[in-house]
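PT: before anyone asks, these are the final sequences, not the draft ones from last week. 902 residues across everything. Please model them as a single complex and drop the result in this thread when it's through.
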Amino acid sequence: MFIQHLIDRIGADKVSQNESELFRHSHDESPHIAVEPEVVCFPHCRKDIKNILEIVNEHHVPVTAFGAGSGLEGQAIPIHKGITINFENMNAVVDFSPGDMTITVQPGLTRLQLNKLINRQGLIFPIDPGADATIGGMVATNASGTTAVRYGSMRDQLLDLEVVLADGTVIHTGSHAKKSSSGYNLTGLFAGSEGTLGIITEVTLRLHGIPESTMVARCTFEMPEICALAAQTILLSGIPVMRMELVDAQSISQVNMYGGYDYPVKHSLFFEFAGLSAAVEEEIKLAEELMHDLSCQDWKIADNPKDQKELWKARHELSYAYSHIQGMVDTGADVCVPISRLPELVIYARELIEQSGLNGGILGHVGDGNFHTIIVFDPNNPGEKEKAEFTNEALATRAIKVGGTCTGEHGVGLGKMKFQKAEHGEAVGVMKGMKNMLDPEGLLNPGKIFM
Amino acid sequence: MFIQHLIDRIGADKVSQNESELFRHSHDESPHIAVEPEVVCFPHCRKDIKNILEIVNEHHVPVTAFGAGSGLEGQAIPIHKGITINFENMNAVVDFSPGDMTITVQPGLTRLQLNKLINRQGLIFPIDPGADATIGGMVATNASGTTAVRYGSMRDQLLDLEVVLADGTVIHTGSHAKKSSSGYNLTGLFAGSEGTLGIITEVTLRLHGIPESTMVARCTFEMPEICALAAQTILLSGIPVMRMELVDAQSISQVNMYGGYDYPVKHSLFFEFAGLSAAVEEEIKLAEELMHDLSCQDWKIADNPKDQKELWKARHELSYAYSHIQGMVDTGADVCVPISRLPELVIYARELIEQSGLNGGILGHVGDGNFHTIIVFDPNNPGEKEKAEFTNEALATRAIKVGGTCTGEHGVGLGKMKFQKAEHGEAVGVMKGMKNMLDPEGLLNPGKIFM
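LR: through. Structure below.
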């Protein structure tokens, strides 16, 4: 019955029960079990969202927001069914102010679409989680990725959010000022709340200038823990590195196999330096000295786009190299720890993978202390999935123990719920209080974040 | 009676009703009306804070946190009397991890004390609100200052807070990881909450490397709006400027009078560039070109500490130049607007000062779009205070209208309560909901932020 009401309220063209749409909205890119929504809505505007939330309240039916479906923790899987909101028709630019280096967009715009629009003005939106995620999805999970070492995570890019609350109230969480000490910081609270506190309908972002010059470099080390130490050394030197990524030897071997490359099969650090040209040259020179002091090998620089692409291929194609193994599924951890604990965590991760007997590697945004494992398992081989999950869980537990977090950038969703109490202790009570205050009926993306 | 209980609970040596202590804790550096607390506590540890909150609850008596008393909006004034907590005995370093570039401190440590401790390790804590505020006070007001253009505000420096809630529960809002997507972001929420949601007992901060090289520069312009345009030009160029400050001609004249200097009496932009040495040289060269393109005058560089201090004197001594006028009191606005609206706001601020007939100037952290007016009035001359306040209010109203905020860095306290509804609209309801959830009895710094 609620579906007919939904059609009456927002129009049949914005509502779909088509089997392929239900399937498309049943899963993300994780191995979490797929669940189809009962109906998918394609709103065009804030008014449609308000109308959908009225139906949600009237019929007491759950509602889940869906961006690009590129999530890795099942946030967009409607485990209690109900309504899924797809934002692909809400991808407009609301207000672009190049002089302020800010833009206001609807949540369905993807990060590559956004960059295409702003690059011609000399501006970039640098947050890069890999996938071409929607801005709304990236806000909802506090996404980050390779450039977080320089620009921070998604939360750090936000000036304002427009949010429709469960009761239909529309709020703005901030302003267009670059900083503010006025009122409680709701922007940061809604960022990373995974659709459990309200539905985001507009996002105002900081933009950044396109760096004048970019150079990339790569070097290798015999031991992964020296890679971690090397990353720490770069940070302490004050070089404002743009990207700094670890790829372990096993993963290099996998990528060589996948792409027919001949990268040296050693633990590798990939760098990107960007800024004014003399600055970049000085940075790369200093970085080379520091890396040689740590006995790096295979130091290689690329200063033109073609060579840069070539040099970074091993990093860029890494997840594909694992995920394209025929008949296999991959999963992985997303821990983030204080830099000083990174070496021991990387060693521990390698031990866990060895113990599991499965094929897997380590790659990391090591400038933040954030790294992932990728573990490949055969879903039809009994016990393999459990072994893979055990390594994820053991690693998350250790990360929390050393003062880190169970998820640096993927979010909680379904996979990290079980770690909330261990990581946040009594603060979980405060979080639940907020959830109850803003969503007393528990209809906004139920079954996520909290057990 | 509650005072005797307080003494019994935490010890007589930590409780004072001395008249001079009550007076010291009755005011901050603003012209807001002083109110003395009934008693001042000097806790040594978290346990003392928990005990104080027990007394607060048992006797239903208000409690207000007090840092260095350097606030500018009356946040630390106990307008409903009760207990004031002074943190001067809670100024220890709990955990210093230079390799992680993080430190955990108690809230009573001041920013200069902190820097003294960490500078020898090549690290700085760069947030500089001017006063030697306590870290706790800076967190509570989301302070920032001259370096926010490079490092952001206080909220951006926080990895974790330990907070004692009104009911005595102790929570940690974050972890020691550099980034996290786990759970709701409580760290950002408690930052800037001005002691109204809980009492902060530990703060874990990001630190930064001491830049290898620092250079400063100054230039002047005929019109203040060109200064604002110049600031925007620097930002768009991608120069990662460390400080960029506007001082208007009237204020230069005031400073010349105060210090016997002969700075050119024109609207002036002061710059600081910091980083690797070749980078700094390139930045300052590019900045000079950009400023000359805008017909700047009096471009002057200083590359050694002595000359740098000399060149920046006009900026550093500015508030003293106004506040030391015999028998007079000063007040000022703290608006922050999108950079593109800065020129019109600066013109408007000058018009308002002229209309008031009072002596006053404009100084700004123009890289953030944040600027202050300083207006001097004679408290014994009827109507002058009202005229000064009128300019503050007109400016805050205009700032909100153009998409900015009534307070960029001073906080709400008493002075900006009246703008909360205009700035935040329906979001004020959400903020009040959080306040009610975390402090149902309304005993934590009552009478602040919300009308």
